[in-house]
Amino acid sequence: MADDEKKVETDEEPEVDETKDDQTADQAEDEKAEDTSDDKADDEEADGVKSKVTPAKKKPSKANKPVKSSKDDIPARAASKVTRQKKVVSMPVAIIVAVACVVVGALLGYFVIGNLTSNQVSGKTTLTEDQLDTTVGTYTYNGKSYTISARDAITSSSSLDSAKNDDGTYNMPSASTILSKAQNGILSLEVEAQGIEVTDDDISSYATSTLNTDDYSSIASQYSLDEDSVKDILRQSCGVKKLYDQVVTTTVTTSPTAPTAPSDGNNDEATADYGAYIVNLLGDEWDSTNNTWARTDGPFYSSMSSMQFTSDSATYTQAETAYYVAYQQYSQSSSNASTQWTDYVNGLLSKASITIDSLVS
Predict the structure, then answer these.
(1) What is the rounded CA–CA span in Å between residue 229 and residue 138?
(2) C-alpha dihedral (258, 261, 267, 272), degrees to nearest 10
(3) Sequence spans of domains, the chain
């Protein structure tokens, strides 16, 4: 290693955002507030919630408050920020979502901060058009080395046109952008190694499911990207999602929708709507034919066995209890899936090393 390069070991544990048992009641209230947003109907449809009871606006009792999950949809909602040179946009299909934001503490084998580039750009914070193909980072994975040019780093989150400064120059890619590009590259290599194929139809379906459109021109315009970059990001993201589905065996339960509080404030008046709401959440723990418990070893039975209700008669208080139990199950399964994916990705990154030319932020 050259004298002007510094090797920094990165063996620390990943900073996984785990569910905590001591979350406050206000956090659960936040979740209920989210459920009352204008797009609650879309959320219900996506989550498969069939109950006619809609999200509550009235503050519920504080018993059995759910622990609020930090990852509502893994990996797509793990994070959705893509930082560009001029502004921040939210593009949930960006491959960064599947790597950098899920794996908070990336366990790369080692970093080297050194002078990869020629003296032409060394020490500079901006680049001219003819310097865009200058190498700003390299990474090694499974014995093979790969280079990252300034152009590669910039176009990973924006088009060249949108990244160009008023004087015609381009900002030097930040160290975090180069690192993310390397991480994304490593996952893409693993997708290929696992024999995962992504067809044009796959990309179209993935775009539609995440962005509600497969009009690449429209997507490119919205996120200040060119169409080729959009398709590349979508292809990589779709491949990583397939890898995720292959790796993560934990089944994440459906995020429940909170019941609507009664308009008259009488939480103990039984209605058919609340009965249907509860039975919908109980799943295989409830025998709909005989209108009683189907088994006694489940979490709902543990919390609600002493309550008297049927599929066509239950109170708001009972519905709340069912909601909190369902949310606890969702939160725990979501956390378990996140941990499984994080451990897998960190295992891949631990086999890699990266050299970054600059620590420009």
Answers:
(1) 21
(2) -80
(3) 1-269+315-361
pLDDT in tens, 189-230: 999 999 999 999 999 999 998 888 999 999 888 888 888 888
Task: Let me know: does 280 contact 257? Beta carbons within 8 Å.
Answer: no
CB count within 10 Å of CB 147 equals: 13
What is this structure's pTM? 0.64
pLDDT in tens, 35-59: 444 444 444 443 333 333 333 334 4
Residue 74: strand, helix, or coil: coil
Contact of 343 with 77, CB cutoff 8 Å: no
Whole-angstrom Cα distance, residue 265 to residue 315?
12
The 10s digit of each residue's pLDDT in 315-360 is 999 999 999 999 999 999 999 999 999 999 989 988 888 888 777 7
Helices within the chain (DSSP H only): 25-35, 40-47, 150-155, 160-163, 175-193, 200-211, 216-222, 227-247, 272-282, 299-304, 316-349
Closest CA to 60 of 328, 317, 303: 317
The residue length of the chain stands at 361
Q: Mean pLDDT throughout 227-250?
A: 90
